[in-house]
């Protein structure tokens, strides 16, 4: 990467179950020979995308949606253009089939990650070439690849090409950050500009069980006992979180729009601080902000996670808790890697705990706004804008 912005966060979550596996247990992983608490990167990315939209950090048409219900989204737009609902639905299915994306009258075959502008342009093209999409059922009982080929051949070749050409990412920031894979249209895939690691506990994980009972409010007073019981697993840990953004790839994915790239980067930085998975929050309300956040911009450098700072699990020591111990381990790893491998950069950090001196090229920011502005200033310099 010619210019990479990296995020290092230490965040302590009180007892919670923010991200659970198929059995309902908090996710975990072995690291350094012991089991650690873990929160998946997918859950954090989902929380960030939701935060972009809820906090209006970006305009609606600068975002994407991941859905199997694109048929409904397109049909509704055509209905707003004055088209008959049932006829619109049939033409949407025909158009998606012509693009090579199998769909029935309700849903696409799999989740599609599409920019709002892409959806709008597809609807407009269907509206403009309405009569050419009035095709009969093309699949004729065919299945698999044969059915997809038949659906693709059912509409004019130039229209099929034009529809596929609309899938250029639509300058959607979340799509540009997190990338897209379309199994049937690999030429329309987008390489992710951001990499997000799974959040990993810095100490040994101790999962616990909450035994609960619920009482029927309307049961007779002379009836004893609970009417429902069960258990919920939870865990508490200090997590190390790491992510990086290839600044040039982000700009490329946004079709060279550096202003949008920088606004998207700002949204990503703010969401990295404030967004978190919401699993079981009605039960645990573990709304804990990070204790340490560092943004680093490095040029002509390889990405560098500091997760190995915690290969030896952090232990509470006297009055020093896991957060302080984790900060000390992180700074020590940072110094060692910088001294041995070079490729240093400019760092701004924010902390609510004492941070040892010695983070190379680092300056402490007094608040989030100053921290984000410092990172954006370095990003602008790295991009030459």
UniProtKB/TrEMBL annotation:
Superkingdom classification of source: Bacteria
Listed InterPro entries: CRISPR-assoc_prot_CT1975
Name assigned to this protein: CRISPR system Cascade subunit CasC
Species in which this protein is naturally found: Deinobacterium chartae
């Amino acid at each position: 990467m010619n210019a990479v912005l990296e995020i290092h966060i230490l965040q302590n979550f009180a007892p919670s179950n923010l991200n659970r596996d198929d059995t309902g247990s908090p996710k975990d992983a072995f690291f350094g020979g012991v089991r650690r608490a873990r929160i998946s990167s997918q859950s954090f990315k989902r929380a960030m995308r939701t935060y972009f939209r809820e906090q209006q950090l970006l305009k609606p048409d600068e975002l994407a949606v991941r859905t199997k219900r694109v048929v409904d989204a397109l049909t509704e737009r055509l209905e707003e253009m004055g088209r008959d609902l049932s006829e619109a639905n049939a033409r949407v299915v025909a158009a998606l089939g012509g693009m090579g994306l199998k769909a029935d009258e309700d849903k696409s075959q799999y989740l599609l990650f599409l920019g709002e502008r892409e959806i709008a342009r597809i609807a407009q093209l269907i509206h403009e070439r309405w009569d050419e999409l009035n095709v009969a059922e093309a699949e004729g009982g065919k299945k698999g690849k044969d059915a997809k080929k038949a659906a693709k051949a059912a509409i004019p070749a130039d229209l099929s090409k034009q529809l596929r050409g609309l899938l250029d990412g639509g300058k959607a920031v979340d799509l540009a950050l997190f990338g897209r894979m379309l199994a049937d249209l690999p030429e329309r895939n987008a390489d992710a500009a951001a990499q997000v690691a799974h959040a990993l506990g810095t100490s040994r994980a101790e999962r616990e069980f909450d035994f609960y009972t619920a009482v029927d409010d309307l049961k007779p007073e002379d009836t004893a006992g609970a009417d429902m019981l069960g258990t919920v697993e939870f865990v508490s840990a200090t997590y190390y979180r790491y992510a990086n953004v290839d600044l040039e790839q982000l700009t490329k994915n946004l079709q060279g729009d550096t202003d949008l790239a920088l606004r998207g980067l700002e949204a990503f930085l703010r969401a990295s601080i404030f967004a978190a998975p919401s699993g079981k929050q009605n039960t645990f309300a573990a709304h804990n902000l990070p204790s340490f956040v560092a943004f680093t911009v490095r040029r002509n450098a390889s990405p560098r996670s500091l997760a190995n700072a915690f290969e030896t699990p952090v232990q509470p020591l006297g009055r020093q808790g896991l957060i302080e111990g984790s900060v000390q381990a992180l700074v020590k790893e940072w110094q060692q890697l910088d001294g041995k491998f070079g490729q240093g950069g400019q760092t701004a950090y924010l902390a609510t705990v004492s941070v040892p001196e010695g983070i190379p090229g680092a300056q402490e920011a007094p608040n989030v706004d100053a921290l984000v502005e410092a990172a954006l200033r370095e990003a602008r310099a790295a991009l030459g804008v």
